[in-house]
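Severity: low
Component: inverse-folding endpoint
Summary: output formatting inconsistent between runs
Steps to reproduce: submit the following structure tokens with default settings.
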């Protein structure tokens, strides 16, 4: 994630790393009091406050906070400042916590941060979750103490709906322009668009705009989204096929057609990196960003190749797409 302090990358064992320039190495940043058995899956910021989140508290006690959301002042690198642990609850009245896995985060304003992911449930397939922190400084609820709360079932800024076999499914990423043009994406071609609290979150179906033979559908897991004010919405992920069982990285683009309205106009499958070996599962594009200077789109992921001795190798995949026409 691009920040004023450089590029931030997050991952397993509560690690956040920063890269500032070609003359600088990756530096590991410390998140105070973050359990190393939890994975940080998303990082975002607004001003001098960073927000990190990921897998839920792995072994909570009765009075523990299930959420691993942290609001961290920038502090002095390589450490964040004193991080406040936020709660993830349905609303401030019933105060029901959830052990949702939050895979994406986007700070739309100083007092509005979105978190997206998936909530497992005892029955059914689980829930799609979009949570929102509205700038509140709630400190206690249901006997649990924390510093601020993100709500997942409280109003038009958040969303909780059941996962269905044909979609919607768990969400993987969220990004936007300000607080009235926000996109959330997930598995089984799941796309939600937020244009403000009046309409709330609306599910979008890209296949409606694309040609009937495009190949895009519920076999596409969308793993990342980036919204650019000039070139539109950019999404990447992996498509699964059944006969044969293969995995294909893809790119999906929507162009702005008016205020808050878009049309999906480009879908590309990168069959050169297709993998049909069931033992090789790291074939996908997992992140996408737009360079604000050139307008070029950069997608990052994994592909497979064979080494000199014929052994299977996992290779980092970086793709550049020349600035799409607006």
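Observed output (run 2 of 3):
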């Amino acid at each position: 994630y691009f920040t004023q302090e450089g590029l931030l990358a997050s991952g397993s064992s509560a690690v956040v790393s920063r890269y500032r320039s070609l003359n600088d190495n990756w530096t590991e940043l410390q998140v105070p009091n973050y359990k190393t058995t939890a994975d940080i899956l998303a990082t975002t910021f607004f001003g001098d406050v960073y927000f990190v989140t990921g897998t839920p508290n792995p072994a909570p006690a009765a009075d523990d906070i299930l959420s691993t959301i942290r609001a961290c002042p920038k502090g002095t690198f390589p450490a964040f400042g004193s991080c406040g642990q936020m709660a993830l609850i349905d609303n401030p009245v019933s105060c029901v916590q959830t052990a949702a896995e939050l895979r994406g985060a986007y700070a739309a304003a100083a007092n509005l941060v979105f978190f997206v992911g998936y909530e497992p449930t005892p029955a059914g397939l689980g829930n799609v979750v979009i949570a929102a922190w509205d700038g509140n400084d709630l400190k206690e609820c249901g006997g649990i103490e924390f510093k601020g709360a993100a709500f997942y079932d409280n109003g038009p800024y958040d969303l909780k709906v059941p996962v269905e076999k044909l979609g919607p499914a768990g969400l993987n990423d969220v990004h936007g322009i300000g607080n009235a043009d926000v996109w959330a994406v997930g598995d089984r071609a799941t796309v939600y668009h937020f244009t403000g609290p009046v309409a709330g979150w609306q599910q979008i179906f890209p296949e409606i705009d694309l040609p009937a033979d495009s190949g895009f559908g519920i076999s596409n897991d969308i793993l990342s989204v980036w919204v650019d004010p000039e070139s539109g919405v950019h999404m990447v992920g992996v498509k699964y096929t059944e006969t044969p069982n293969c995995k294909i990285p893809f790119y999906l683009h929507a162009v702005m057609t008016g205020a808050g309205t878009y049309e999906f106009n480009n879908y590309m499958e990168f069959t050169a990196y297709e993998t049909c070996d069931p033992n090789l599962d790291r074939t996908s594009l997992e992140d996408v960003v737009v360079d604000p200077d050139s307008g070029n789109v950069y997608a990052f992921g994994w592909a497979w190749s064979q080494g000199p001795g014929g052994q299977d190798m996992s290779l980092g995949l970086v793709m550049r797409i020349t600035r799409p026409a607006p």
